[in-house]
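Two proteins were folded this term; both appear here.
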Amino acid sequence: MFRDLVNQMDDQVFPALGDPAMHKGETILGMFDAPWLEPDFGRQQTALRSPVFVVRDAVAAAIAPGDTLDLQIPGTDAGLYTVTKLEPDGTGLITLVLRRAK
């Protein structure tokens, strides 16, 4: 019952708020995030980013590590990314861990 309610909510949220990306010629919707990580190595600070794209289970079923996503979003984060890992969270969503493609 709860999972059905969450699916109904996702049916409304992803089309309204999702970020588009191209995967194998098809548009998929997800939620892009690229938080800054600033670990300290000795006294030197680094400026690392950890980009991710969160999608629904049904979308993730067609995605594998090594696939590329072309994020169709405004700004400097747009462009090609390689999927390095898929991380299910147990709620019907999968986090795609990304790396900027060269």
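Next, the second protein.
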Amino acid sequence: ACSTCHDEAHFPNTLAVPAVKFPSGAVLTFGDGASANLCMECHQGRESTVSVNNAIGNAPDDTVDTSLRFINPHYFGAGATLWGDEAKGAYEYTGKTYLGHHPHVDAGQTCVTCHDAHALTINTQLCAGCHGGNTDPETIRMGTTDYDGDANTTEGMYDEVNTMEALLLTAVQKYATDTAGSPIAYNTNSYPYFFIDTNGNGIADPDEMKSSNSYASWTPRLLRAAYNYQWVQKDPGAFAHNGKYILQILYDSIQDVGGDVSTLT
């Protein structure tokens, strides 16, 4: 409704939101009264590094803990992705260093710079101004680093992230079978998303996607990686919101569950 964002008593003024508190406890802002702060009130996810650590406590990394459940970060946490390490929406591994907010913020760009506030469409002409006339965000990249190890240094950041996502799911499934002792399958459209892969085919089949078959053999290490996989799935624009931060998150998740990162950057 209009009143979600607009002050009805002083229409068309937007509601005054000087800063936004994120699930990690961080308080962030595009500036006092910036209308894009309103976007972050909802688009921040509902979990964080802090809540995942609180749930795990001191449990051993590779021991199945029956008290653990999958922690769903919720949907479209773009605000937290955009602010990276400052928001800590995705799970950040202890001892690692992560990028903060995306350089777009330094350029004065906010949610409503790139997205139409009402239609939510993307202002692709803004992309073109800085990216050589390119109006397709999925094909944009800066630099020639081969992050995903596929020897393609011209594909967009979108494809770099997609390949890493697939590698993480493969690593999660191998770890679940080999270490947690129970095969796991995922479906992005069926809560609670991770299920016991009863036939071991790597796919969440219709007869497996039911609450009574939700995955239950969580170890702390598996939970952290699964949380990050879900984070990226539920922020489909993560490649643009803060692509390099997301690649760091994916790389560390793959590495932590024993995946091969020898060809990755």
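The longest strand covers residues 184-186. The chain is about 35% helix and 5% strand. These notes refer to the second protein only.
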